């Protein structure tokens, strides 16, 4: 499992942790998400950058009541996410960039530790200008989804 956040002139992560799938369909429950991602990474970041909006998709740990309560309690402003619109999140395009870079390696990772090392190394190599372009496309993404009345877009 992996997690990361991007912003204009910012990136947080990557956080790579083992997916042990303890009774949850997607392997990560809200408590684990809170304790391994939100508490150590998101809350300190938001405390340093008060004007930011945190965006997540509709993965179960993200939509859990415990997660929303935690974010509200810690004054994390959350960008509302339409029920069926993965089109909005630029991090998905960033993960696609990461996947292409991993696939292009002369020796692709074969074990979890090798993958963790590759993700960490490649994460740092993505030019910030490319990340900024993805993040600054949010205005266009939102307008496109609104114009499509929540329907599919080219994103």
Automatic annotation (TrEMBL):
<dbReference type="GO" id="GO:0003676">
    <property type="term" value="F:nucleic acid binding"/>
</dbReference>
<dbReference type="InterPro" id="IPR038717">
    <property type="entry name" value="Tc1-like_DDE_dom"/>
</dbReference>
<dbReference type="Pfam" id="PF13358">
    <property type="entry name" value="DDE_3"/>
</dbReference>
<feature type="domain" description="Tc1-like transposase DDE">
    <location>
        <begin position="14"/>
        <end position="115"/>
    </location>
</feature>
<protein>
    <recommendedName>
        <fullName>Tc1-like transposase DDE domain-containing protein</fullName>
    </recommendedName>
</protein>
<dbReference type="InterPro" id="IPR036397">
    <property type="entry name" value="RNaseH_sf"/>
</dbReference>
């Amino acid at each position: 499992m992996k997690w990361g956040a991007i912003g204009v002139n910012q990136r947080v992560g990557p956080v790579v942790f083992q997916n042990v799938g303890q009774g949850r369909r997607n392997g990560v429950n809200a408590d684990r998400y809170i304790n391994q991602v939100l508490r150590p990474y998101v809350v300190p970041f938001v405390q340093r950058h008060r004007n930011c909006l945190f965006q997540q998709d509709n993965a179960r740990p993200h939509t859990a009541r415990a997660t929303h309560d935690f974010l509200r309690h810690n004054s994390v402003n959350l960008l509302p996410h339409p029920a069926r619109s993965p089109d909005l999140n630029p991090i998905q395009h960033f993960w696609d960039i990461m996947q292409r870079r991993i696939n292009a390696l002369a020796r692709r990772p074969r074990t979890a530790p090798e993958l963790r090392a590759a993700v960490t190394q490649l994460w740092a190599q993505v030019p910030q200008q490319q990340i900024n372009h993805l993040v600054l496309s949010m205005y266009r993404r939102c307008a496109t989804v609104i114009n499509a009345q929540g329907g599919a877009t080219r994103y």
